[in-house]
């Protein structure tokens, strides 16, 4: 009968431990990325909702509600060393205006966020983006 472990048994045990640790590190990295994306998405949604609420309360003849593509003059909007860009598109309706607010930001492998000149430029970009739609009926008049 032999006492102790052979070199092969020790090497197999170390390999199993190494594979387990590599898996744990990979899961941790995915969790960090997901948490960062969730934070960015929450901030972007707050920026979009804030602007949409402001635009919905304006008079229908306000400059920010002229049917066109609008860039926020405060771009880029920063938080924790990350730049967010805000835009909105306005379309005339029979009884008011349709407003779509867009927020873009760079997220890990998806970059290219900047001051876009149109919605088609924005849609062709690989950057992370969200949009919220609302309507203005001139209640602020």
Q: What characteristics describe this protein?
A:
141 residues; alpha+beta; five-stranded antiparallel beta sheet; 40% helix
Task: Explain what you see.
This protein is an alpha+beta fold. It has one domain. It contains 2 helices and 5 strands; from the N terminus they run αββββαβ. It has helices at residues 7-56, 119-124, and strands spanning 69-71, 77-79, 82-92, 97-105, 128-136. β2 and β3 (82-92) form a beta hairpin. The longest helix is centred in the N-terminal third of the chain and has 50 residues, at 7-56. The chain is rod-shaped. The model has no long low-confidence stretch (mean pLDDT 86).
SSE topology:
Blueprint: H1 7-56, E1 69-71, E2 77-79, E3 82-92, E4 97-105, H2 119-124, E5 128-136
Summarize the structure.
The protein is of the alpha+beta class.
Number of helices: 2
The gross shape turns out to be rod-shaped
Radius of gyration: 25 Å
Count every beta strand, where a strand is a DSSP E run of 2 or more residues. 5
Distance between the termini: 95 Å
Q: Strand-residue fraction? A: 15-25%
Mean pLDDT: 86
Number of domains: 1
Q: Report the uncertain regions.
A: none
Helix content: 25-40%
- Major β-sheet, in short? 5 strands, antiparallel
Strand/helix succession: HEEEEHE
- Computed structural class: alpha+beta
């Amino acid at each position: 009968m032999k006492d102790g472990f052979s070199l092969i048994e020790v090497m197999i045990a170390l390999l199993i431990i190494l594979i387990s640790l590599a898996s744990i590190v990979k899961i941790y990295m995915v969790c960090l990325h997901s948490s960062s994306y969730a934070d960015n998405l929450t901030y972007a949604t707050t920026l979009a909702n804030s602007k949409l609420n402001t635009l919905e309360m304006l008079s229908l003849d306000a400059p920010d509600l002229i049917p066109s593509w609008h860039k926020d003059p405060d771009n880029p909007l920063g938080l924790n060393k990350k730049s967010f860009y805000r835009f909105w598109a306005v379309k005339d309706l029979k009884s008011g205006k349709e407003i779509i607010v867009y927020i873009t930001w760079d997220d890990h492998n998806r970059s290219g966020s900047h001051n876009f000149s149109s919605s088609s430029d924005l849609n062709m970009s690989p950057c992370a983006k969200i949009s919220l739609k609302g309507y203005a009926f001139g209640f602020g008049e």
